[in-house]
């Protein structure tokens, strides 16, 4: 997971303001609202596909009164195919922009084949992967927003031997529907987020037989962990 931490060091929507690997849920202990504690507990016990390694990481402290963050990497042997961070925000007083008391914020990144990166429809497709992952698990959400960015690196001089590299980055946030006790189904949202990670990494769908799912091809030279 060290490689994932390094690639995420430039942050996403304030994610660089991390303090403490277990986030505020542990730091504040019993002072956190019961709904937030329940939402975090559900994240900690969620069952995910084995290719995805998930662990707590530092959470940004200025985005909401209560925050918790997870970091994940899609792993194939000793190679990371994609990585990302998911942050849970909670404001018991509610937030006008969220239209709720909880908000999920994410950053997902993966390397691309150069020809795939040149596809003009790629940003729209990647955004549809996010919304499709939520809808596939029957999740209701509101106020989605985000960006899809693709970047290419070309090397010159002493670095000219390196092949050109392309990367896709998805930054997004959405408001999960709150259920009983004002607690959203964070475990299901985490599972859908991991579905997105796996799709960006080029893994086949967890549920076989869905021919409508399109994934990125495996990279020729995934970054070693």
UniProtKB/TrEMBL annotation:
At the top level, the lineage of the source is Bacteria
For this protein, the record's InterPro entries field holds: DUF3000
Q: Where is the composition biased (Basic and acidic residues)?
A: 16-29
Q: Name one Pfam family in it.
A: DUF3000
The segments labelled Disordered in the record are: 1-33
Recorded protein name is: DUF3000 domain-containing protein
